[in-house]
Amino acid sequence: MLITEILENNYQDSINLMLLTQKVNSLPEVVKSQIMMGSDANKDILGNSGLLSEEAKAASPNDLVIVVESETQDVKAEVLQLVDEFLSDLSVKTNSDKQAKTVSSLAEALEVLPDANLALFSIPGEYGAVEMEKALRKGLNVFSFTDNIPVEDEKRLKDLAHEKGLLMMGPDCGTGIISSVPLAFTNVIRPGNIGIVGASGTGIQEVTTIIDRLGAGVVHAIGTGGRDLSEKVGAITVKDAILALDKHEPTDVICVISKPAAKEVRDEVVTLLQSVSKPVVAIFLGEKPDSHEGNVYLAHTLEETARLAVDLAEGEPIKDNYQMPIKHSVSEQLPADKVVIGLYSGGTLASEAGMLITEALDLGGLTKKEGYILQHNGYDIIDLGDDIYTQGRPHPMIDPEVRITKLKEYAAKENTGVILFDVVLGYGAHEDMTGALLPTIQEIKQTYPDIQLVATVVGTDSDPQNYQDAVNRLAQSGVLVEESNERAVRLALKFKGVDVQEVNKEVIPYTGRKMDLPAPSENVMSLLTEKPRVINIGLQSFNDSITAYGGQSVQYSWRPIAGGNKKMIKILNFLEGFSDEIDAENAAVAQRMKQVQPFLIDVVKARDVIPELNDLSQKTLLHAGPPITWETMTGPMQGSCLGAALFEKWAQTEEEARALFEEGHVRFIPCHHVHAVGPMGGITSGDMAVLVVENKIDGVRAYCTMNEGIGKVLRFGAYSEEVVQRLEWMRDVLGPTIAKALKLSEDGINLNVLIAKAITMGDEFHQRNIAASLNFVKEIVPLITKLDLDKDVKYDVIKFLSDTDQFFLNIMMATGKVIVDSARKDAKGTIVTTMTRNGVDFGIRIAETNDDWYTAPVNTPKGLYFTGFSEEDGNPDIGDSAITETVGVGAMAMIAAPGVTRFVGAGGFQDAIETSEEMARICITRNSNWSIPNWNFEGSVLGIDIRKIVETGITPIINTGIAHKKAGLGQVGAGTVRAPLGCFEKALEAYAVSKGFTND
């Protein structure tokens, strides 16, 4: 039975999840389990292991998928508790880490660490190339622990890095040292004057740890990835690194460590090495050199490499042979049918073992396939770090499980005589791999006493696990530990009666060509002459060694952009090529928004300012949201239409009014098409009174009906006689009174000033408008008192305004409409200029495509309901009032009105802070006109960018009233609602197409 739990939008690092899976699999009721993110690649892994449930198939790449196979459903609670404890423990560790500040984007990381010079990646390979390209284009050198990058992408990235004068280290860079600062899986090596360039795995670790134990030191170990010397890549990173080390003054000796290389590429590298000014030690694993040549000292084994480098670094003459005696003697040889097995966590160490064994026993060379380095007549040398063993599980340097399984498997085979293995220490490795392996080692020694266990420990006494302690504990358990991998292999072969001897080497003159060396780039030289300043993208623990040894780091808590939607990722990457242009266009739009000077100047009948409503031959209503028809309207909007028809005297009864609409006698136009906005249903007819707000800079005007107050009101779908009478009073009394009062002012009421005051008093201008409404009363009442009107009329108007806490909402909506319409003129870019909803669709418009609508189904608000009502009664999201969020207030400025958060069901003050901080991530700037005191007097956010929305998956949040889904029942609650992601994705795709994007 498969048990599945999906934790939505809960991105976790893959290595942590692999360790968590181990813990879950240890539960007795669990047959097997897998915990991973819901990416396509991970779903393939789940499928291959028989754990791909229907729920898991529907998960997104940002969802945490927990699948457990068990005979009992009861195990679910235990698993979820273990998962929660594990993730909570990670959170505590993260929060206690004061060394590395955590950010959520590359841009934010560069703000925190503006002089960063290195990006360290440990993210899933399917996303790696895209993210690394972004870092390179931002001028960052790249260290890619990330693997599974196609070789074509590696070549492209390295070409780009070379072009920009940067180093692209990796992919599959396991270890590195930059200016004596350890990176990723690395040992603690004393500083020195040796500079290393290598494939960046256990080869570098073996050489550097031997150098350390010999008393010398390393200044740099520049990883290249295992394919750099392949024909397809052409040694781009190797060459650039060698050139830099040659000009790096503290480096006295250059050391090059390579897995088997393409001959032509290898020869190019050797020519370069013969041309540099410093002595070079080089090892090309698989080659067996018989001499040194010119300036290049060619080694056969990793230990020889280290010892040659130390002698050269210390100015000592080189020896003709560096083979050292093995520590252990062999008193009895193994029978002829017994073989040597190698179970390595390090690929380079496995390759060295395979090379030495096949040379000694003439087994015909290495056979790299499915994790095997050597597979011949029972002689199996296995790289347990190969993809076949690490897919969906941690590397064997972290997780002992695969090695333990293989140790037991091979110990049980009749022909096994010697088992070789490595224990790799250092940062990133298992905190006590020795202790983890000892129970299995002891079991093998007791059960199979004739099997010889031979090991090498890669580490130093400064490593967190301590080299000498690991050696002593293994030896006490009967393991024969040698001081290098080469010596361990020689010991294993001695049990087979083979004594491996290295040939003596002499130095012969180099007679080949030399080359003129180009100067290394300033960026690379800067990287090598300063402590690294790292943006760590992925595994949090990689910060530890950086900060411990004098580097700086900022933690970028990466997750797949666009929710892992590959089409959207492709579009976002395409638009990266236009980023400077788009940023400039967006900044221009935002600046126009800031510069708008909105004034309330009048209240008039809608038909007097909206020509579409003044055509008496055509019954016309305006509505909220993008275009919609009568048949598809929800209950509240239809109810508002009925009320408008009764108000306009188009019908005398509800039945007559309904027939008008059902027979198609009424034309519908979105408010937004005619410079208007309307709350909730947004229904506006010709005789209704509308507020007029004007931008004094360019004369752009916008219109909105006035707020009806509370109770049964048209905007919530009520259409009783009481509703109609109130609309008539607003048309005949309230509107004309305010209009006359405004005429007594010189320019009308300056709304920017009024909003700036009210936001400091706790308004956010969607759910809370009480301060702004009272400030409006303060402005308008003295003018009303001057009017030559009946005192009862004045009283009624002033009383209505004083009682209507939300009166300013409609003024704010017209203000928002003036702001966006002023900014939309001839605008370009990706800024959202309209957000609205009609109860069925949520619609947006953006600067570039002007009047085009992009829609997606609306969501139903979440919040608090009045007594007797629940979410089942709530109508889907509706109204033009999201214009407030469009210009950066409403829920976008929740922090300005923390008191509102509980009313709309969003929690308390901390929730208000978090909401506003989240909204800031999808906006490009702040509006200094509207400063928020409890946000350190920063301005409200401004300029919602569809790129940021699609990239982060964060959609705008909107404060809203909740209407009953049945017409006429009015408001039943208040809450918040998220804009659907789909409309922003559609807008982004259309924008990208306008820039030339094709989804080929």
UniProtKB/TrEMBL annotation:
Classification via InterPro entries: AllG-like (IPR009499), CoA-bd (IPR003781), OXTCase_su_AllG_h-dom (IPR024033), SUCC_ACL_C (IPR005811), Succinyl-CoA_synth-like (IPR016102)
One GO molecular-function entry: succinate-CoA ligase (ADP-forming) activity
Superkingdom of source: Bacteria
Listed GO CC annotations: cytosol; succinate-CoA ligase complex (ADP-forming)
A biological process term (GO) from this entry: tricarboxylic acid cycle
Residues covered by the ATP-citrate synthase/succinyl-CoA ligase C-terminal domain: 343-492
Domain CoA-binding intervals: 191-285
NCBIfam families assigned: PRK06091.1
Protein name, per record: Acyl-CoA synthetase FdrA
Biological source species: Streptococcus minor
Gene designation: fdrA
